[in-house]
Design brief:
9 helices; globular; four-stranded antiparallel sheet; alpha/beta; about 220 residues
């Protein structure tokens, strides 16, 4: 929904990025690294310099970055115990499950109650985790130190690129941590209602355009293009 959804706008954005010397391109996604790779190929994206996948629980980039990030977020994480604690919630399919991510479907009409129950069960067992809801029905449970925002901050420090020189863009609840991470933030016009509160807080650029056109607008607003 952030990059894809308007093929012509996506082509224009990719061409603009390709012409921009010294500007790196990364993809941050809720999908697994394998599905991100498939999407890069299917949509004709530029080869990413950085991939943040699985809602910020996995990272691919320069050599050693993935292992260093896993060491950062993995301490104290016990995936089996998290899944056991949340037994009874409807698990997403195998594609949604990753070493540092347990993912569920929630009924939109009982979302808040289910979320409160999940937090209670984890806390009762002494399990520290981050719960991220997106699109009003998906719950991702990650290590406490993991999120798209944490991944952006980690990559910024590891690669020596100050957050003030990083622009991030998003459209849904699983982007909220990233949009608050200290980078320059763009919310595309087609954003989900769950980002309304973040937009109201200020501190983000709300694009007038949708999808990739909104990303391009935000990059121009911040002087990156």
């Amino acid at each position: 929904g952030t990059l894809t959804g308007d093929g012509a706008a996506l082509e224009t954005l990719m061409a603009a990025l390709e012409r921009a010397p010294g500007l790196g391109f990364g993809v941050a996604s809720g999908r697994s690294p394998e599905l991100v790779r498939a999407a890069v190929e299917a949509f004709g994206l530029l080869e990413p310099d950085l991939v943040i996948a699985s809602v910020g629980s996995e990272m691919d980039g320069p050599e050693g970055l993935r292992a260093a990030y896993e060491a950062e977020i993995g301490a104290g994480w016990d995936r089996a115990r998290v899944e056991e604690a949340l037994a009874g919630l409807r698990l997403q399919g195998p594609a949604g499950q990753r070493p540092y991510k347990v993912s569920f479907h929630l009924a939109p009409e009982s979302l808040e109650a289910a979320l409160a129950e999940a937090r209670f069960r984890l806390e009762r067992r002494g399990l520290r985790a981050r719960l991220i809801v997106s699109h009003g029905e998906f719950l991702d449970v990650l290590p406490e130190r993991a999120s798209k925002g944490a991944a952006v901050r980690f990559a910024s420090a590891a690669l020596g690129v100050p957050l003030g020189r990083v622009v991030v863009a998003g459209d849904s609840g699983n982007d909220a941590e990233m949009l608050r991470c200290g980078a320059r933030s763009v919310v595309v016009a087609n954003h989900e209602p769950e980002l309304a509160a973040l937009v109201a807080e200020g501190g983000v650029y709300l694009a007038r355009e949708r999808h990739a056109a909104g990303v391009l607008e935000g990059l121009r607003h911040f002087g990156a293009l």
